[in-house]
Amino acid sequence: MNKIKISSVSYTNSKPFVYGLQHSELINEIDLSLDIPSDCAAKLIDNKVDIGLIPVAAIPFVPNANIIGSYCIGSVGAVDSVFIFSNLPIEEVRTVKLDPQSRTSNNLAKVLLKFHFKKEVEFTTDANADTDALVLIGDRTFGKKTTYPFAYDMGKEWMNFTGLPFMYAAWVANKQIPESFVKEFDKALLMGLNHREKLISELPIEKGIDLHDYLMHKLDFTLSEEKLKAKDLFLKLITEL
Ligand SMILES: C=C(O[C@@H]1C=C(C(=O)O)C=C[C@H]1O)C(=O)O
């Protein structure tokens, strides 16, 4: 049988999932690559992989997209790695630089600025642009909370706005995946989540982030009804931007 091709996120947030996959029997049946989120999405859209841990904002662009399994990358309130970092208070921000590695959080920034903060701002993808604020996600945010005058945690702001948790990335397939595989896949992911304490003890200490708090409490990996509701609302709001 051909191996099932899977693209997972290369950031610390996904290490429990990767640990579970790498330490299960399933590793012999899959071809696992680790990519930045925008590449996870591109690979799934281009059918270079069968399953991807992809930004939820990219789901509408995946042919035959179906969310599989019981886990995701989410948070119930603050997440500690998805920020608008700013030189000015949000009320005064006029220009925002987007993060090329992101699909969800760039759109989340647009949704929050328009519907929550009620601001019309200019967005740019030009890496060299000098802007009032910028979107940044993943490990590159570690330690930066205190280097900018203002740091807006978008998981927290989404909660303030909607009262809902948030789902940043979901396991999505672009074709029907056998149920028996999904069952084993879920088992491997859960095993990884259950080994977080061990995994954390082996991670290098990062300045400016409490990795134990991040992986055990800030991130919330359960694909709950509430997170699905948040995903639907988020995708609807994107169409109204
Ligand atoms: C919590 C995070 O969630 C993520 C944010 C994503 C995005 O903005 O597109 C995609 C995948 C996840 O890695 C993070 O990267 O810090």
From TrEMBL:
Protein name: Chorismate dehydratase
The family this protein is said to belong to: Belongs to the MqnA/MqnD family. MqnA subfamily.
Gene: mqnA
CDD domains cross-referenced by the UniProt entry: PBP2_Sco4506
Cross-referenced PANTHER family: CHORISMATE DEHYDRATASE
E.C. designation(s): 4.2.1.151
Pathway of action: Quinol/quinone metabolism; menaquinone biosynthesis
Swiss-Prot/TrEMBL keywords: Lyase, Menaquinone biosynthesis
Classification via InterPro entries: Menaquinone_biosynth, MqnA
Gene3D superfamilies noted in UniProt: Periplasmic binding protein-like II
Pfam families: VitK2_biosynth
Lineage of the species this protein comes from: Bacteria, Pseudomonadati, Bacteroidota, Sphingobacteriia, Sphingobacteriales
